[in-house]
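Archive entry: two folds, one per protein. Generate the first.
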Amino acid sequence: MPRLPGEVRVINVGLPIFADALRDQGAPVVDVDWRIPAGGDGGLVSALGRLLGPKATRIDAANARVLGHLNASPIIRTVERAGAVIEGLGERTLLHCGPAITWDDMIDPLRRSATAAIVAEGWANNVATAAELAQAGEVMFKPANDHQTVVPMATVIGPSAPVYVVENAHGGTTAFSSVNQGAGEAPWFGVNNEAGIDRLKLVRDVIGPVLAEALKRRGGIDILDLAAQGVAMADDVHMRIQATTNLVLRDLLPALVRSSHPLTAVAADFLAGNPLTTLNMAMAAAKALADAAARVDGTSIVTTMARNGSSFGIRLGNRPWIVTDAPPVRSALFRPGFGPECAAPDIGDSAVLELIGLGAAVAGNTPAAATFLGGANDALALTQAMETISVGESDRFRMPYLSNKGAPLGLDVRRIAELSVTPGISTGIVHATDGLGQIGAGIARAPLACFVQAALELDERIA
């Protein structure tokens, strides 16, 4: 006569509610996170069958070369005037974050940043006149990414802005990023009042020149080596970057105290009070690596990922942008008095850091990230999700809280499209309409559509 088992052990495949019900009854359960490949889209499933099947050998070889580029060590050499070193940045031209956008399509914080830049450049006397110039088409707007440059949040830069110059000898590339404008009333947070414009002038006329002299005297900085030390000290080098900034200031200190600039003390005060100083440095280094990786033909690894508050875009190699709507920042903490209803969509080029294994990729190693995600388990789950959609792991960025594993590296559109799992992006949040600056921070989720389109186009392109 058949007998019922005295003990039940279950493997649950599918809806987690079944596993939860069994656990509530004290039964041991192994929950398998399985989902229909490619969301059940037949055309995408067929494409992935080719990309992960007969075409995989060629793609995997290209991806291996990309990983080699993403593990290189670029050097920050100096700070220069943007118009002197960035090709295509002429007079009456501004570079902005994210994919290409017109004045009419810009969200309010980006418009405010643009008008502040126009006034700082001397093209208009006030922000109202600056807006009229932009509306009339008398100022040209170009994506920074298309000019070897990345800028964080709502940053807009003109020819007189100071930029870091980063050289990547391994990949033969040079990249640039703006000098960080600091906290509070700053245009990179969508503030264009008098204090915000004065901040741009301070960064241009004082901070930039002092940093240029210090970097030249120091002989350059391997910023990603210091970032790796920062990760070991619980930085994600995106949302939490204090340790890395302290390491950079330590390295620059001897050069700073020998500076001949009359306002070195002013610059020192600014730098010491700005923990995000090295955000832009790391972004420029990441851009230098990504641009070298973009020269590899046939890769499935994302080499550009950026947003302008209206749209979100990616690129594979040097292929054209693939663009969709910018996402909201859903996992977030807001300052008192603010919430999702007044938050602008995700904005900035800083997602380049996730491309090289920083930011959300190391969330599980960053206790600060857990506060935005609901706890340490959720932060760990984000890093594990990034692992499932990445080709390999970083040789440089090691996570001591996770048994010293390398950070997930090389976001693969094939895996993203197959699993319907998209990258997380560490980010700040700015006020959508009122020019009040940063109101929070959190983790945004990249939209799936552009990665699916990239996978389909890769399948069409590779014989």
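Generate the second and append.
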Amino acid sequence: MGATPDRATVPEPFTTTVMASGALFIGLALLMLGNGLQGSLLGVRASQEDFGSVVIGLIMAAFFTGFLLGSVWTVHALRRVGYVRVFAALAAVASVAILVQELFVVPLAWGLMRFVTGLCFAGIFVVSESWLNNRATNRTRGRLLAVYMVVMYLGQGGGQLLLNLADPSQADLFILSSILISVAVVPLLLSATPAPEVSLSRRMSVRRLFRVSPFGAGGVFIAGLINGTIMGMGAVYAHDAGLSVSRIALFMGALICGGALLQWPLGRLSDRVDRRLVIIGVAFAGAASALLADQATGWTTPWMLGSVGLFGGLAFALHSLNLAHTNDCLEPAEMLGASSSLVLLLGVGSVIGPLAVGAVMSQAGAAGFFWWLAVVQVAFGLFGLGCVRYFAKRASVEPSHYVVVPAQTSSVGSAAIEDVYATQERETAETPDDGEPEAESPDAGRREDDVRDGPPPAAY
């Protein structure tokens, strides 16, 4: 038909996509090393300065307040100056914020800087996720976002180990964190890979996101509940369960490492079969592994690490899988606005999770931690089954003018569909013109996109 092939007609190989995004992944790894170091450093230093547990809690909560605001503000900045400049500006401000906390060791300054840091990292996540989703196709999105999560978790976990390099009461670790965050900008600035186009991006409110994909948007919120619960209250559970300090460290390490190890196989599986079914299966398996991990906490160390690692791998995978599923339902111009709303949903869930499980544990004891996580995942799995059944029933009774194309359309099938459209266009061209200009159909220009990318986005 004479059209120049694009990324939709000739899908970019997965390895090529990863290599093209290498500068972004390196930058994110350095950022998360710096952020992971901050998390432990500030907690230890605040305790040394006798800030008090309530004040420390408020300082840490300021991060999430900034996180929520940053998820909304970043989209406006991206439309004005583009991806690379926003990424660089936010990293620069985050680098300065940690130095200010060393210069002014007072609760008010720390609270303000944690707010700024949360705003910056939320914006960086919006930039990164919308960038990757724009490069991905429905056949590679699960694996690409799995790589993204592996980089994030390994960077976050590696940052914890840097705490042993110097005395937290001195300035060295604050400077190291600032250096890591500052250097993270360099690979992206020196990369020749073009950033996605933002001039054609459209807004995507949380309400509209739930209309387009209630299952995916709800899943990101649930992932926030789970992630916030684990990261915010995991060590508290381990302490209340009677673990020693060394075993608490192993417990948290197993959770994070498990989250990194299972991202790739689950992401790959979701690219090959119906992603919704993978998510539902992971939710139910995660609930079962939560109950197993609760029992295994008192077992010998290898069994505890294996059980807790399995749970962490399944629980943390829900974020990337639901991100991939939601973006499967979107057009490229909607992905930037959707990334902002998805980060917002994740942040809200991360705030609610620790508060909710804290109330549960106050009534049920330490065991309430894993029981809460199991109930949340079972409820989400049942919600997913309801979504699949509802929309399958609606699709069977509502006629559609779109041509349904399987996700794995063969070359013969694609050629046949193109021939049908070519025949329709020839017949239209041969129709006698009565002199009146024909109004352009609202679906004009979409038919070729439907053939290229498969069925149009469905609300599920």
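Annotation attached to the second fold: Confidence is low (pLDDT under 50) at residues 1-10, 399-417, 431-459. Residues 335-364 form the longest helix (30 residues).
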